[in-house]
Amino acid sequence: MSNLGNLKLWKLLSIIVLAESLYIDWNNSFEVLDKAYEAGLFVLIIGPKGTGKTTLVREFATRKGKKLESINFSLRTRESHLVGSKTLESGSVGFEHGILVKSMKEGSMLYLDEINSAEADVLLRLDEALDDRRQIVLKEAGGELVEATKGWFVISTINPLSHVGTKELPPQLLSRFPVRVRLDYPPEEIELQIVKKYVRGSHENELVQGIRLANTLRQAAAVEELYYSPSLRETIAFGKVLDSGMKPRQAADIVFANVYAQWGNVEYQKVNDIITSMFGN
Asked: Domain 3-182 classified CATH 3.90.1280.10?
């Protein structure tokens, strides 16, 4: 297929994806991302787990018709995942570029998920590539200089420092992302709209109860009365379990309550009492 044919196909797929969009832009995030993209400013999205950060980034890439490269950071992420590593094939030593370098060369959109879970040496290499020069020297590949292709765009996400495994980003790296979007849990009526996109059945009253329960638990976790804050994934799961025919009380137990048992009976009982007050025995 020709490049023109590929472009037409990509645009068609983009239209289909947007028509079936699962993301509800309740706080005008797309507008902010659009302005940052036009200005060539990298973006940092800040918010707790399960608030739709990844879905937002994926749909934004689709809207822009950009190839999206992504990496999820953890303690196991190494410099080689970003810049690349040496290879040996048929007795010849080569070098395979990592996801950061590939993205820079292609001018694609790069998604750095949970960047504040990365180790210091990894962040240092990122900092080199993200400064105003948009270039990186590959000492691992004999000093090759890689300059980002025009249109290269980077979006990072971070979880709050209260999340296990996260750490404060160095100020110089934080400054590489001058546009910051705060993405929290949506209002209950918006969360209901989101959940209904994933469920088949008509059980709106029960969904409202489940979302209200999730918000109650989130508020308790925010003031450290509970250890865990349920995400949008859990309210969506609650709706899907209702679709399977499960009773609301049982669905609330298996989706929301049981996870708290890992912190002991006292923690579990707190949540169980809340569920009983809302759903009955």
From this structure: no
| Unique residue bearing structure tokens 């959940």 | 195
How many angstroms separate the CA atoms of 231 and 115, rounded? 19
The angle subtended at Cα 197 by Cα 201 and Cα 46, nearest 5°, is 140
Which residue is associated with the tokens 């992504």? Answer: 70
Place of tokens 């820079």: 104
Query: Please, what's the b/e burial string for 135-159 (b: 16 or more CB within 10 A of its CB; e: otherwise)?
Result: ebebeebeeeebebeeebbbbbbbb
- List C-alpha distances in Å: 188 to 25, 146, 162, 212, 236: 14, 46, 23, 7, 13
3-state secondary structure 128-163: HHHCCCCEEEEHHHCCEEEECCCCCEEEEEECCCCC
Q: What is the pLDDT along the chain (281 residues), one digit of tens a residue?
A: 444 444 444 444 444 344 456 688 899 999 999 999 999 999 999 998 889 899 999 999 999 999 999 999 987 889 889 998 887 777 777 788 999 999 999 999 999 999 988 888 899 999 999 999 999 999 888 889 999 999 999 999 998 766 666 778 899 999 999 999 999 999 999 999 999 999 988 899 999 999 999 999 999 998 889 999 999 999 999 999 999 999 999 999 999 999 999 999 999 999 999 999 999 88
Residue with tokens 């309550």: 257
- Taking the C-alpha atoms of residue 184 and residue 32, their distance in angstroms, rounded to an integer, is 15
pTM, full prediction? 0.82
